[in-house]
Design goal:
The chain has 251 residues and is α+β, with helices and mostly antiparallel strands. Helices cover 43% and strands 14% of the residues. The chain contains 7 helices and 7 strands. A 5-stranded antiparallel β-sheet has the order 2-1-5-4-3, with helices on both faces. A two-stranded antiparallel ribbon has the order 6-7. A hairpin with a 5-residue loop joins strand 1 and strand 2. The N and C termini lie far apart (47 Å).
């Protein structure tokens, strides 16, 4: 029995997690494995060929990984623009032999009001062999968590003002392409608790307490200026409110 090999559990994997605005610009995201992480991978060569075909010119020899990602994201945008996917019903497209599922966005001719149905799209990219239903489930959980963190205001400015939380969310959701957590409420709670721990650690290093001290360096919307609330206080309040809401839901 000791010589029998033990198969590892089947863990969902993705090639990329992206947060895009209504124009297809990447606001946040990460690529994993060999998918557009180097310029000599098979996916990168496919991106070069696709870029040449769409532009009609030879791609410059000094192409960078960011150039290849931009080419992929432009193709992705051309397929999903004008499509609004409900938070609980992700849409599926195929881009460069990859399966991409997304939630959010606005329909053709519609204008975003900045509410829960804003123009932000959460996109999960996986191999063509991966289950579309599984990728959709992952994407819907991530979108739910992001909506909770943004207070339902899924627009470009809100995401840019809270990029620290968005990247923490991606890390809590996925590590190296392996999905760690899908439940939206658990993800949002983990992000806020982790951020609070980091704020407290920074406050301790600077010699002030974590409730009324100096805000961490950030481009966030709230800064310590006269009577303004600090980032530390804002995140602490948001964490307390979310935890209270989760407790009331569970009762």
């Amino acid at each position: 029995m000791s010589h029998l090999s033990v198969l590892p559990p089947l863990l969902p994997r993705v090639d990329a997690v992206l947060i895009l605005d209504g124009d297809g610009n990447r606001l946040a995201g990460k690529y994993y494995g060999d998918f557009l992480t180097t310029t000599n991978s098979s996916s990168s060569r496919d991106a070069m060929k696709s870029s040449e075909a769409s532009s009609g010119d030879n791609v410059k020899s000094s192409v960078t990984v960011e150039d290849l990602r931009g080419a992929f994201e432009r193709q992705l945008q051309s397929k999903i623009q004008g499509i609004a996917a409900r938070p609980d019903a992700a849409e599926v497209v195929t881009v460069m032999a990859k399966t991409a599922v997304f939630c959010g966005g606005t329909a053709m001719g519609a204008t975003s009001s900045g509410g829960a149905g804003g123009d932000i799209r959460v996109v999960h990219v996986g191999p063509s062999t991966e289950s579309e239903l599984l990728l959709a489930y992952l994407c819907e959980g991530m979108y739910d968590a992001l909506s909770n963190l943004m207070g339902g205001q899924m627009d470009r400015n809100m995401v840019l003002d809270n990029l620290e939380l968005v990247f923490l969310l991606i890390d809590e959701h996925c590590d190296g392409g392996i999905i760690l957590e899908v439940d939206g409420h658990k993800l949002a709670s983990s992000v806020l608790l982790r951020d609070e721990d980091e704020v407290d650690a920074e406050a301790g290093e600077s010699g002030v307490d974590g409730t009324g001290g100096v805000a961490p360096s950030s481009t966030g919307p709230m800064r310590q200026n006269g009577g303004d609330i600090t980032l530390a206080q804002a995140f602490r309040q948001a964490s307390q409110q979310l935890m209270a809401g989760l407790q009331s839901d569970g009762m």
